[in-house]
Amino acid sequence: MYPGNLANGTSECKEKALYLCSMILTDTHTHLYSEQFKDDIDLVMQHAMEQNVKYMFLPAIDSSTHDAMLALQDRYTGNCYAMMGVHPCSVNENYKEELTIAKNWLDKRPFVAVGEIGIDLYWDTTYEKQQIEAFETQMEWALERHLPISIHTRNATALTIDIVRPFAEKGLKGVFHCFGGSVEEATAIVDMDFYLGIGGVVTYKKAALPEVLSRFSLNNIVLETDAPYLSPVPYRGKRNESAYISQVALKLAETFNITIAEVAETTTKNASVLFKTLLL
């Protein structure tokens, strides 16, 4: 959100256009390898680049998606970065097999993070104990490999924070993906030196998230889409894309009363620190 109008034909317009084109946005959580993108992924990537989204981080789900995720990373080397882990919703009767597969991948090739991992008690609580075990196991892997983690938590934020805290005290870093919680929860996360992953929810009309975030620093935030899910306004109800992260950045620019370019610079620097990857 650069101040002033971009009126065509003026020197001010050209200066502002160059200013905006020079910024780099980073989507720290996007499932561009999913089936929803199989027919037009190159166009989706083009749209992202046109919106200055240069870097996209791909969280793993389970063994059913690993090949597609790694193929996308290899196809867009330097733009797409893969993680490895077992999603809590994929923790069921064969979770130990899934953990073994994920660990074998981590032993085989580099990844930027262990994720997405965590606790999800929204759909089903049958495997809560196994989810906790899988989560703790994968955090141990991250500590051993000096990797950050990308956390999925739903209907379990307080529990997840409690599980993470002893690992954070040992030096584990990471991000609470799709954060939408309270000031108290955000404070606990930031106090552990973890980031808040902010996506389309922040643009929703009735969302309390902008007020919560206004009490913190942009230095505590990274941007994400969780594409193809949780599209921001004005794309709500449609398939989400990494290109739409510009709408999240605009909302944060409004929340912190700064320019979108400043949001882009700070959040991309944060992503670079989080994933120990040189992005700027």
Automatic annotation (TrEMBL):
It comes from the Bacteria. InterPro entries: Metal_Hydrolase, TatD-like, TatD/YcfH-like. GO terms for molecular function: hydrolase activity. Signal peptide: none annotated. It holds the Pfam family TatD_DNase. Keywords: Hydrolase, Metal-binding. NCBIfam families: YchF/TatD family DNA exonuclease. This is TatD family hydrolase.
